[in-house]
Specification:
heterodimer; A: alpha+beta; six-stranded antiparallel sheet; five-stranded antiparallel sheet; 15 strands; 53% helix; 9% strand; B: 5 helices; AP_complex_ssu (chain B); protein transport (chain B)
């Protein structure tokens, strides 16, 4: 036996191994394919052998060949064989091969399930590791379902090496098997705090990846991530978290406010550019989400822009690129701060790196204004001339057009200039974007009525010089512009100077070499021109010669087109030819035909909004898929069939109707048909009726009189030698603006003199509004069907796998979902809503720890959660509350290190009660906040929900997870119940002291972690015009309360405030005090000294203040279960006291919210006008309140284990309500 | 997410391809070709980021590439990855290769693509970054190689001898492709710990 093995291995050494294969391929450079095919034959032989070593060698070679592009899927089964070898060496080869070439439709994959399961539970960590790595590449929905449980177990493996791999692969499992997300999520969350940094980083990675796709479900994790951000030192983790925050802030602006300061600190402190860049990016995201909410965020923007400018100016191209990229994000919301760096960005246009040039172009797009548009475009035009390489030039071209046409041509003040730019662009050789220029020409000519005359003149020149455009390359896209030119000249022919000449230009024989669709437009518009010529001639019957000449011209030239091989051209040409022949006959009889001919082309075209058709709602009771008539059986019903088609492409339908008109001149017949059609259309529900404006069909030359008259000075020669045309308009425009300005100034002066009042001179730069357009620009807006539906879901990809992962994770797990469903096979294609699925499934894995009490709660809850609608709404809000409140609180727990962002008291107020809560639960929403972010969090949300459900009437038991859509409508329906008006803004920041230089406001909060500490947050606001620095904060300690000073400092030393204040800026600092007794309120005297620095002098200033530690500030908002609450009251340890408040006329929920907010209570339960509330002091005293209200009288019964404290708290509550 | 990792030489010959999404072999080759075209026509001192190509690109994805001597290392990533971070990751990858192969050169990658895969598997898993600490990666790779050796035992001896003989002529090919400029410009980037 042993001999056999040795012999086998001796045989084997003459087999080719991977190295031999590679060497062989390198030696057969000329006939590589042939050599490889012999190798594959060898491999096939080797795979047939029993020896696993031979097989694995073969598989190893196949993996290499796969990289070279050879399909090796035929060996899939052999790969599975090698995977299941007991030896690690071979197993690894097998898994590698599988990861390279297996995919969802590989059918042998289902054979691997058990093997993989075995490997996952192997005692050898590397077997497990290799299996996980392999699986991550080829996991299928079936594998994910079958192995989810095993992998979840591995997440708690003893070896961090396995843990981190298991955590990472869970993401793939979630993607393939969304049902596993909810059951696995709690454990995933635990891993965020794994002792091993690698595992932690993996968990951050997975959650960030999940949250990026469905951010709103992960808002509640924000506090946890906030903690990680302030504590982690791993740059990878930090980058991921910061990126994640960037995704979360748009959903929760309050989070953004908390973020700004730590991020700013990171920006200042980090030396890693990657981290700096991501911080800047997220700060930008925050600023975007806040946009206007914060008055003093300009400092942050300035910081970002400054940092980015440094990046852009760096010699490292990577930093330059990223700097530009980030700059473009700022641009969207704060264009002004970026615009000042225009020079830098224009400079980047000259960079040798194309990526950088393109980025700079992107930036320019947002930087234009009415004032600088012409200048910027002029620069770009120069670049167009210089640019090598058509891709970049095309890119420039599209950018120029984008820049000019953005937001409905908002920045264009002079359309003559724009048309001439477009005309100039047509001289670009070999561009692909002819159609783009063409559509711009059409768009402008149609929508800017005032420009039509000018446009027509330009287009006529273009048509005349068509040979320049089509000159060498017919296939170049630029001839597309002729399409636009011909159409414009035809449609607006009344503006033509010399229609005859243009007509002649359009009928040159060379036109026949143009692409078919352009010829068709030429022919059609030649007919329009013809009618114009007739019209103009008929006024002077003496000269009927010209009209007849025109007819003759058409009759001479059209036959070329009749012979065209393009059907469209042929059809149009022959129709028109016949028509003209008939007209010629009439002309010879001196019959006036102009009017009839013009009628053919009368009517105005209105631009239609994109997607207008799509937005027409389907009328009720209409089934678009149903046959209106029996399916067409023969030619008889063809007409019907076409009509049905007509509804989808009604535009075509129109043109179909117009065509026969050329041949049938019988006006009567036509009119009759028109009437019939109109009646038909009126009754046809599919036909989209034209809006009133377009119903003026057949009023000759409609609206010509209404077009604002434009004075176009055609005496200006259209071309000046040596100067591009558009430059001229730039110059003219500048002159015009100068003149306007001068006029304005004159007027201003007059006014000033009249009023005899001194005003500051308007020497400042011209503002946007000052620039008036050259002529009344009348942009015709696009038409929309009257009852169009607003729909913005056009762009969503229904196939996005992440859609399935949009699962509410804050909702507590139902008992049945605690464990992963396994071994139950899903019905084939049906992908039910995940939760329904999970609930119905059988359960088999280790139970999760859970207290009996909670279980009971849940059962009770289950029985009660009924009224579906309300429940749904509640949940929506709940999610918001949970997500938003916690970050606010978490700042309390992170001591001085994590200072909150600079904010004024008003904002602070806004922070805490931003969404005006509109339900009776508002109070609880604000109050039932978990100060710490850890496991309690889920508990509290459970608790909250339970409470809410209890209050609700009971109706139906049904979960709904995608509640976001329903919420808005629901709240309207529930108006009868939730008709209480929103809360007024509240703030806990009280004025501490104020003088002409500085204002201090403060908030005092207990420290949850340390029963003897309170945290005082003081916001310093600089009120003067000078710089304030060297602020020192000192307090005279009392026996009971002491300011905590750094080690080594004396008991009377002052603390330096860690920032300076530029004028108008405010910032927040925190000070920690230790207290002994919390029964009595305390007052401490203190002083703030600071230096006021003006340009030439600096003065020492001082401000005294009194810090007031109320008993309330020793209370900490703590949620409490109602049964625990009941027990607490029953225990009899508490002493009672009571309070009556008269004349309170605010709604009960406001009252509760106030108590919650100002006095740190949480609502335990609320029934009608009666509520129980709870709070806890930092030293663990329980404080219970029962609040009742009746006719403006509020009575509060209170119990506490420390009567002194209670009395003081009640006094403070009384004070609160006497003040408001 | 990392969508794909490609290594190819100055002539576009693939030395390693790892796709984290499935494509047919033909598409994969096309992607490699396209990426090579995009990457190779760039000058030396332009930025390392490219808006993706048509196939694997899409608007969301980016190519992040580094050029070492004769080899291009290209990572195709989506917007959730930090550009500079990935640039560092490539550096870590190359340095790890350098440690594992002792002065890595293109030939090492040519003849031992399986080993390169194994090293990569310790860094990136299923498109997500698994480990960025070089020492940790090397420890795990070494431990696995050791296991492989112990498994081969006596039975593997003859094969090893033969392959040693076969490889004798390897050094005659120029080992010129040292990634000597390993400390290539990485300004200000903290190496990840």
């Amino acid at each position: 036996m042993a001999l056999k093995i040795v012999k086998g291995s001796i045989d084997r050494m003459f087999d080719k191994n991977l190295q031999d294969l590679v060497r062989g391929i390198r030696n057969h450079k000329e006939d590589e394919a042939k050599y490889i095919s012999t190798c594959i034959d060898e491999i096939k032989q080797e795979l047939k052998q029993d020896n696993i070593a031979v097989k694995s060698n073969a598989v190893c070679k196949l993996t290499y060949l796969q990289m070279l592009g050879y399909d090796v899927s035929w060996a899939a089964f052999n790969i599975v064989e090698v995977m299941s070898s007991s030896k690690f060496t071979y197993k690894r080869i097998g898994y590698l091969a599988a990861s390279q070439c297996f995919h969802e439709s590989t059918d042998v994959i289902m054979l691997t399930t058990n093997q993989i399961r075995k490997d996952l539970s192997s005692p050898n960590q590397y077997d497990t590791g290799v299996a996980l790595t392999g699986l991550s590449c080829f996991v299928t929905p079936d594998l994910a379902r079958d192995l989810a449980n095993d992998i979840m177990t591995l997440m708690s493996h003893t070896k961090p090496y396995i843990r981190k791999k298991a955590v990472l692969i869970m993401y793939k499992v979630f993607l393939k098997y969304p049902e596993s997300l909810r059951p696995a999520f709690p454990r995933m969350k635990e891993k965020l705090e794994d002792p091993d940094p690698g595992v932690q980083s993996a968990a951050v990675n997975v959650i960030c990846e999940l949250a990026r796709r469905n951010p709103k479900n992960y808002l509640s994790l924000a506090p946890l991530f906030f903690k990680l951000m302030t504590s982690s030192t791993n740059n990878w983790v930090l980058i991921k978290i910061i990126k994640l925050f960037g995704a979360l802030t748009p959903l929760e602006p309050r989070l953004g406010k908390k973020l700004i300061e730590p991020l700013t600190n990171l920006i200042h402190s980090t030396s890693a550019m990657s981290l700096l860049y991501e911080c800047v990016n997220t700060v930008i995201a925050v600023l975007i989400s806040l946009s206007s909410g914060m008055p003093n965020h300009s400092a942050s923007i300035q910081l970002c822009v400054q940092k980015l400018r440094i990046l852009i100016e760096d010699s490292d191209q990577n930093l330059k690129y990223l700097g530009l990229l980030a700059m473009s994000k700022i641009l969207k919301t704060h264009p002004k701060s970026v615009q000042s760096h225009k020079d830098l960005i224009l400079q980047c246009l000259d960079d040798k790196d194309e990526s950088i040039r393109l980025r700079a172009l992107d930036l320019l797009y947002g930087m234009v204004s009415k004032k600088n548009l012409m200048e910027i475009v002029k620069k770009l035009m120069l670049h167009v001339d210089k640019a090598e390489g058509t891709t970049y030039r095309d890119e420039l071209l599209t950018k120029i057009i984008d820049i000019c046409s953005q937001s409905n041509y908002q920045y264009i003040t002079n359309f003559e200039w724009y048309i001439s730019i477009l005309v100039e662009l047509t001289r670009l050789e070999g561009t692909r974007h002819g159609h783009l220029i063409a559509s711009q020409m059409l768009d402008v000519a149609i929508r800017v009525k005032a420009i039509r005359a000018f446009a027509v003149a330009q287009m006529a020149t273009l048509l005349d010089n068509a040979h320049l455009l089509t000159g060498n390359t017919q296939h170049s896209g630029i001839c597309e512009v002729l399409y636009a030119a011909a159409w414009i000249c035809g449609e607006f022919s009344e503006h033509l100077e010399d229609p005859m000449a243009t007509l002649e230009a359009m009928l040159r024989p060379k036109v026949a070499t143009l692409p078919g669709h352009i010829q068709a437009v030429y022919v059609q518009n030649a007919a329009k021109l013809f009618s114009t010529v007739l019209c103009s001639q008929e006024g002077a019957p003496a000269d009927s010669k010209v009209a007849q000449e025109t007819s003759q011209l058409l009759i001479d030239r059209l036959p070329v087109f009749v012979q065209s091989d393009n059907l469209e051209v042929q059809e149009r040409a022959s129709c028109i030819l016949q028509l003209v022949k008939y007209i010629q006959k009439l002309q010879q009889k001196d019959v006036e035909v102009a009017e009839e001919v013009t009628a053919l082309f009368a009517g105005e075209l209105n631009p239609v909004a994109p997607k207008a058709q799509k937005k027409v709602p389907v009328p009720e009771g209409l089934d678009l898929d149903a046959w209106i008539n029996e399916p067409p059986s023969g030619s008889e019903s063809e007409d019907e069939g076409r009509k049905t088609k007509g509804k989808a492409v009604f535009a075509k339908e129109e043109s179909r109707h117009t065509k026969p008109r050329y041949t049938e001149v019988d006006e009567k017949e036509l009119a009759k048909r028109r009437e019939v059609r109109k009646a038909e259309q009126a009754n046809n529900p599919f036909y989209i009726k034209a809006s009133p404006s377009s119903q003026k069909v057949y009023q000759e030359a409609v609206g010509v009189e209404h077009i604002p008259v434009v004075q176009i000075d055609l005496s200006v020669p259209l071309k000046v030698p040596g100067m591009p045309m558009s430059d001229q308009y730039v110059k003219l425009e500048e002159e015009r603006r100068e003149k306007n300005k001068a006029d304005r100034k004159k007027k201003d002066k007059k006014k000033r003199r009249e009023k005899g009042r001194q005003r500051r001179g308007d020497s400042g730069p011209e503002s946007e509004e000052d620039i008036t357009p050259a002529h009344m620009v009348d942009i015709v807006t696009e038409e929309m069907p009257e009852n169009a539906l607003p729909s913005d879901d056009d762009d969503k990809d229904p196939n996005d796998p992440h859609k399935a992962l949009n699962i509410d994770l804050d909702k507590p797990l139902a008992d049945s979902e605690k464990k992963l469903p396994v071994r139950t096979h899903r019905p084939d294609e049906v992908l039910k809503s995940p939760i329904e699925d999970v609930e119905g499934l059988e359960v088999t894995s280790e139970p999760k720890k859970k207290s009996g009490k909670e279980k009971k709660d849940k059962e009770r809850k289950k029985g009660k959660e009924k009224k579906k609608k309300k429940h749904k709404q509640e949940e929506g809000e709940d999610l918001m509350e949970a997500g938003s409140e916690e970050p606010v609180q978490s700042k309390v727990t992170n001591d001085v290190a994590a200072q909150p962002p600079a904010s004024t008291p008003e904002e602070a107020a806004a922070v805490t009660d931003d969404p005006p809560a509109s339900t009776p639960d508002a109070g609880s929403g604000v109050a039932a906040v978990v100060p710490d972010s850890e496991p309690e969090e889920t508990k509290s949300s459970k608790h909250k929900k339970k409470k809410q459900k209890k209050e609700k009437d009971k109706k139906k038991k049904h979960h709904h997870h995608h509640h976001s859509d329903g919420v808005r409508e629901e709240s309207v329906q529930n108006g009868t119940v939730e008709d209480e008006e929103p809360l007024p803004p509240m703030s806990n920041y009280a004025l501490l002291a104020e003088n002409s230089y500085i204002k201090m406001v403060c908030d005092i909060q207990g420290n949850l972690h340390d029963g003897s500490q309170v945290v005082v947050s003081v916001i310093f606001e600089n009120k003067c015009d000078s710089f304030i620095k060297s602020m020192e904060f000192n307090v005279m300690d009392s026996l009971n309360s002491k300011l905590q000073r750094p080690e080594g400092a004396g008991p009377h030393d002052s603390l330096t405030v860690p920032f300076h204040l530029p004028p108008g800026i405010s910032n927040e600092a925190r000070f920690i005090f230790s207290v002994q007794s919390i029964v009595m309120p305390q007052k401490l005297k203190g002083t703030l000294t600071f230096i006021v620095k003006t340009e030439d002098s600096s003065t020492h200033e001082k401000l005294d203040f009194k810090l007031h530690f109320t008993c309330t500030s020793y209370l900490i908002t703590t949620p409490c279960y109602s049964d625990a609450y009941a027990k607490l009251l029953e225990s009899g340890d508490l002493k009672g006291s009571s309070l009556k408040l008269e004349g309170i006329n605010q709604p009960f929920h406001h009252l509760l919210a106030r108590i919650c907010f100002h006095h740190h209570f949480s609502v335990v339960e609320r029934i009608d006008s009666c509520a129980s509330m709870y709070s806890r002091s930092i030293q663990g005293h329980h404080v219970c309140l029962l609040v009742k209200t009746a006719d403006q009288t509020v009575s509060i019964d209170a119990k506490c284990d420390e009567p002194g404290l209670l009395r003081n708290v009640l006094d403070e509550i009384k004070l609160t309500f006497s003040q408001c | 997410m990392i969508k794909a990792i490609l290594i190819f030489n100055n002539h576009g010959k693939p030395r390693l391809s790892k796709f984290y999404e499935h494509y047919s072999e033909d598409t994969e080759q096309q992607i490699i070709r396209e990426t090579f075209h995009l990457v190779s026509k760039r000058d030396e001192n332009v930025c390392n980021f490219l808006e993706g190509g048509m196939l694997i690109g899409g608007s969301e994805n980016k190519l992040i590439c580094r050029h070492y001597a004769t080899l291009y290392f290209v990572f195709c990533v989506d917007s959730s990855e930090s550009e500079l971070g990935i640039l560092d990751l490539i550096q870590v990858f190359v340095e790890t290769l350098d440690k594992c192969f002792e002065n890595v050169c293109e030939l090492d990658l040519i003849f031992h693509v399986d080993k390169v895969h194994n090293i990569l598997a310790e860094m990136v898993m299923g498109g997500m970054v698994l480990e960025t600490n070089m020492n940790e990666i090397i420890t795990q790779v070494d431990a696995q190689n050791k296991m492989e050796k112990s498994e081969a035992g006596i039975a593997g001896a003859p094969a090893r001898a033969v392959s040693a003989v076969k490889n004798m002529n390897l050094p005659e090919m120029p080992r010129n492709i040292n990634i000597g400029d390993i400390s290539i410009k990485v300004p200000n980037l903290l190496s990840f710990k």
